[in-house]
Amino acid sequence: MIRRRLRISGLVQGVGFRPFVYRLARRFSLNGRVCNNAAGVEVEAEGSRTALTAFAQALEVEAPPAAVIEQVESWELPAVGATGFVIDSTDSGGAPAAGVVPDLAVCPDCLREMLDPVDRRHLYPFINCTNCGPRYTIIEKIPYDRPHTTMGKFTMCPACRAEYDDPASRRFHAQPNACPACGPQVVLVAAGTTAHQGQQPVDLTAEPTGVSPGEESESFDDSAPGAVAADAAVGPEAITGARHLLRAGGILAVKGIGGFHLAVNAADDWAVARLRRRKGREAKPLAVMVRDAAAARGLVHLDPEEEKLLTSPARPIVLAVRLSAPSLSVAPAVAPDNRRLGLMLAYAPLHYLLLDDELPVLVMTSANRSSEPICIANDEARRRLVGIADALLLHDREIARGNDDSVVAKNEKFPVFLRRGRGYAPGLLPLATEGVELLAVGAELKNTVCLAARGRAVISQHLGDLQNLEGYRMFCRTIDDLSGLFAIRPQMVAHDLHPDYLASRWARQWAADRGLPAVAVQHHHAHLAACLAENHHRGPALGLILDGTGYGPDHTIWGGEILLGEAAGFSRYGHLEPMPLPGGDLAVKQPWRTGLAYLHRAFGGDIPPCFGKLPLPADIDRTVAAGGRKAVIEMLNGNINCPVTTSCGRLFDAVAVIAGGRREISYEAQAAIELMQAGGGLAPPSFAWELTHADGRLIMAVSPMIRDIATAVAAGAGPAEISRRFHYSLVKMFTAALNEAAAETGVKTVALSGGVMQNEVLLAGLTESLERTGLTVLLPQRLPPNDGGIAFGQAVVASNRSAAPQIRSISQA
Ligand code: ZN
Ligand code: ZN
Ligand code: FE
Question: Is the separation of the CB atoms in 448 and 460 below 8 Å?
Answer without folding.
Answer: yes
